[in-house]
Every structure is written in structure tokens, then in C-alpha cells.
Amino acid sequence: MSTLAVQTDERVQDVQISDDYLAVALMDGRIISVPLAWYPRLLNASVEQLTDWSICGGGYGIHWESIDEDLSTEGLLRGAPAPKKNNADF
After folding, report:
1. Model confidence at 86, in pLDDT bands (50, 70, 90)?
2. Closest CA to 50 of 81, 9, 29, 20
3. Does residue 3 fall inside a structural domain?
4. Which domain CATH number covers 16?
5. Average pLDDT of 9-31?
């Protein structure tokens, strides 16, 4: 019996943002789609800010300079929303 080893490549290829969702295309063909509401900085950003992203972290991250937001493909694949702020975090 032979086993097919699937090659994965979790590096970012492209980012698309709609009014409700963030979709990240990975190099291996997968697309991660998450609710934009999970990331308040993105949800409240202007269209200009949202489209001004860059790939960082050796290809495994996305950075939005103007809103100081960074996401990793690892976190997106885990389904990890942005941490909730508590009242002590000013």
C-alpha cells in the first residue's frame, strides 16, 4: 500500500477583504475565510487601510502598517480571533 504525502505550503499568496470576511489564499491552494468581526482593527479600517497590506514573517504573516495589525497563517488556521481587551488594557 502506498501513501500519498500531501505537500502543504502555508505561506500567504493573496488577501481579499469584503464587508464581512477576510479571505487569505495560501500557496498550496487553500483559502482561509474568517469573519472580519474577529479583528476589530480591520473591521473599523478604511478601504485604503485594508488594501495596504504586506506579507511578512517569511511569508507566514500579513501586516497592515497604518492600523498596526499583524496576522499569521498559523493563527488563522487555528481559528484564533483577536484577543478581547479587558478594562485594564488602556
Report:
1. low
2. 20
3. no
4. 3.30.2020.40
5. 97
81 and 71 Cβ atoms separated by less than 8 Å: no
Confidence (pLDDT) at 90: 43
Q: How far is the C-alpha of 53 from the C-alpha of 51, rounded, in Å?
A: 6
Distance separating the N- and C-terminal Cα atoms of the chain: 59
Q: Does residue 61 belong to any structural domain of this protein?
A: yes
> What DSSP designation does 36 have?
G
The CA distance from 51 to 62, in Å, is 11
Is residue 23 in some structural domain? yes
Model's pTM, two decimal places? 0.85
Ranges assigned E (strand) in the chain: 12-17, 21-26, 31-35, 53-56, 61-64, 69-72
Provide the residue range defining the domain that includes 65.
12-78
Q: What angle do CA 77, 84, 13 make, to 5 degrees?
A: 30
Domain count, the chain: 1
